[in-house]
Amino acid sequence: MNAQLKTVLLTILTLSLFVIALIELSGVSETALFNKYNIGSGPGNGLSYKQSQSREDMIANMPKTSIQFYETKYNFGTLKEGDVVKHAFKFKNTGTNPLLIAKTDVSCGCTVPTFSKEPIPPGGEGEIMVQYNSSHHPGHQQKNVMVHSNAQQEAMSIGFEAEVTPK
Question: What CATH number does the domain located at 67-165 have?
Fold first, then answer.
């Protein structure tokens, strides 16, 4: 192979690698590292609208539906301080559009709600599991969880109470 051909091939290879590096770093490609690992935030970062949009914004733009909780209050009864208890608040999508839970807000770090991030089809059921840690919380306790979704009533309150006896 003559030297001139080697120089041309090496130049083409170098330019190709340079272009690939520019595409990866700019985030133009959907498989670019910036998009794949959600690096950056806000406008002008090279991320597509779909990826930079928050879950709450996405849900606010969804068609409304309705949600029915089978119970909105639960009583754990008497607990010993330090007990960790759980309860599932079950609900049904009673509307005609898919139901998506955006987020839950709690009044205390002792209460941890978990829920499915998947949409619940019309007529489908789901649950929000609420875990309560009674450590350092003696006495009568009432805790609430605000559930935000694409339901007509965008925020609903569910909660529980317990009588926590000291150690």
Answer: 2.60.40.10
